[in-house]
Amino acid sequence: MTIDRSSLRRCAPPVGVPQVRHLAVCSAALLAVAVACSGATSPTPSPSTTTATSTSTSNRPAPDPSRFQQDILLEGVFDEPTEMTVAHDGRVFIVERHGTFSMYDPTTRTQRAVQRLVVNDTDENGLIGITLDPGFDRNHWIYLNRTVGDHHRLARFTFDGDSLRDERVMLEVRIDKGCCHTGGSMTFDRNGHLFLSYGDNTNPFTAGDYAPIEPTPGKSLADALRSAGNTQDLRGKILRITPTPDGKYTIPAGNLFADPKVGRPEIYVMGDRNPYRISVDQHTGWLYWGEVGPDARRDSVYGSEGFDEVNQAKQAGNYGWPMFIADNRPYRNYNFTTKQLFDFFDPKHPVNSSPNNTGAKVLPLPQPAMIYYPYEKSEKFPLTGEGGRTAMAGPVYHYGDYAGSAVRLPEYYDNKFFHYDWMRGWVMATTLSSSGDYVRMEPFLSQLTFDHPVDMEMGSDGSLYVLEYGTYWNAKNPNARLSRITYHPGNRPPVAKLVASRTVGAAPLTVELSADSSFDRDPNDAIHFTWKIPGSADREGARVTQTFATPGRQHVRLVVRDRAGAESEASTDILVGNAPPKVTIDVVGNRSFYSNDAGVDYTVKVSDAEDGTLGKIDPSKVKVSLAYGPAGAAAAPVSTNAGAQSASVPEGLARIRKSDCLACHGIDNASVGPAYVAVAQKYQNQPDARMKLITKIATGGTGVWGDRVMPPHPGLSEDDRRVIVDYILSLASSKLPARGRAPLNQHASAPGGTYRLTAIYADQPRNGIGPLADTAVVVLHAPRILASTTETTRGIGPGTGQGADGTTHLLATIYSDTASLTFGRLDLTGISSVTLELRAGYRGAHPFTIELRDGSPTGAVLGSADVRPSGQGWFTQTVPLAATTGEHALFIVLRSSDRDIEQFNPMVTVDGVRFDRRG
């Protein structure tokens, strides 16, 4: 499948040896269109709407989450995977949008790229669908859906084990160039009927996020009535055909149009926007699909707000688009060029009057969606969450189909329908009544992280295969992966964990390998360790040391087996033949804090075992930059290495990673939306940029970066948005030479922020390894740190209040007669004193002592001061610091002789802690 850039609304390495590792599941989408860069939220268990009597499984207890096992079969080898199909023998065939057809072999546990097909991969086009013939074990037929030129082409191939041959073109669907919504998913039912989906191939932006209905001549690309609403067009449809042995097809009884003069006989379902992933219940023959919906955020004169849908068709039907959505909420017939409003479409009498329509004018009555949800939280289906949305349909599970399997999913999920959301990352198990009506949904493996799941298929043993697209849209993601989920009702396999002391270096490379973190969940079970190392005999034991003399990628596997013979694996690649470089930054003066100086002198040093040092290494190959992130008072350093060469993850980036924003924005690469670096550069000189962007994340917007729509982000708090914006603005870095003076002049207009001086060098590749990069970062904080960000909490209670600077934020209140604050390791070079902002306890003024101690609360005293508070207002106390150089873990100890200090009689409240420079 492909992501729908058009709907962008939403925010809008060569194939190699795969890694196979085991993860224990601790608890129980693209594309296409609506990829949203909003703060999508995962569902949490809560009551959901019930519309019918549940089946008998509702009385069974939910299965123990620890009995599910997820094995990562392949990772880092895919370039935009779109769909997969699983053979009876466990082989998995995967297609990628740019044309690669590959196979996972369960015997060797490796992936093989079988063939690269020629495709048109512009927009969302390309190799978009795959399925196996029901008789594949005998005839070896594989069906592929791909874009060739200006057509989507369905073709049957014969797989001979090494390649695809004997292509039989079965069907071609013409597309208009310049847009989106491909569909492409395929599956068979038990009667040999092939279902395949196609999106409406319509540009939605002209319509302002509502239904694109554009009758103006020359603008038909913006008219979905010409495709999805057209009975003589195969776009915006799900087709049903019966393949024949000669590579052609016939039309089964029961499709939507029996008379070809009225509509194309291949059509089973019409009125689809982008049915990106479809599935058929092999028992009932009922069809399921996810429908990626439009972006409108509210009802208006043009019609309904946008919804994604999860649909069920028990028989052929019209599902409404672009006239209706959700439970048949209508859109208005409207000319978006002339702005002329016509009537709302009538669900009791749908008429397609578009001049671009070549089919019937009176259409079949529209069918309502089974499940539907907007950007905001749905009252009817609250578990679907909120934020970006891309609905997908998975399999209906039948426990009895896998009798005798030791790894099939539990009976609890018998007859339940799995569906998932590419954008939000959740999977739901929906219970249906005996007549197929919706009863309720519940999260499936809710603590397992799926990074944009794009396909789910049942294996022949009742295990569940999951294909994940990875973090970024339109990119080769290192975390794109194939995994398999199994269930173990009896003995549970052990959990394999592998730790390598080094994973890259020059040859010979000696590596210590440890399995010490592996464990077994069954009480008193013993586990055994086997190491499988290239060029070496199998070795036993929890720890081994291996010297790799041969350059190249060495794939190391750890097999952990329990007494019952159950096993799991972990693996890693050791990259031999290229030593990584080392980059450092020397600065003159203090390397933890900046003052009001005009700048800081610095020198970047680079050394590489093969490339040499600067001089031999071209200085222009070293990327040096300075960035400033505005904030309130500077937060405490986030690692114990604060102020040193530390590349710790900034808080803003950490919060971005917790949201779904990276699906639409890369840090320095454009995706559905612009790169964050580009955003920072665009807004860096605008004085109101910070508040403008904080508001825009909340409300959404369009027009700044072309016709791409950025949706609102209801799941992100104001604090989240503030921290994210500060991080984004900090990316507007200035480029610097390898040696010089970095100007520190941005904090004058935005006090309290942080400078990050960064140097990066990537070495020359050798022996097929690399290039390898190293990064050095010097973080210079404002000299005032909030006490509430202390790394220790004993005797200290954080609470919101008005601080010494008049703003409301977290304060640190001392509830014990002895307490200490520390902010990690700080450079004390040139620091003459530490000044605390204090307020006396609200039940009286307690005398106390402040001590500055080195390394621990009982370490050497570097300074002290006695404090005798008076009054209830804020005051400052300066504590002289003995002349100290270099980095120290400085502890600020507060102690009082009064023994009645407690929660309701605190010693003192501390706000900012300022580090004063000498001179």
Structural features, described:
The chain has 919 residues and is mainly β. The longest helix has 12 residues, at 718-729. The chain is globular, with a radius of gyration of 31 Å. The protein contains five helices and 59 strands. The strands form 15 sheets. Strands 11, 12, 13, 14, 15 and 19 form a six-stranded mixed sheet that branches. Strands 50, 51, 52, 54, 57 and 59 form a six-stranded antiparallel sheet that branches. 5% of the residues lie in helices and 38% in strands. Helix 2 packs across helix 5 and helix 4 crosses helix 5. The termini are far apart.
Helix content: under 10%
Strand content: 35-45%
Overall body shape: globular
Unreliable stretches (pLDDT < 50, length at least 5) are 1-56, 632-648
Number of strands: 59
Q: What does the radius of gyration come to?
A: 31 Å
Mean pLDDT level: 87
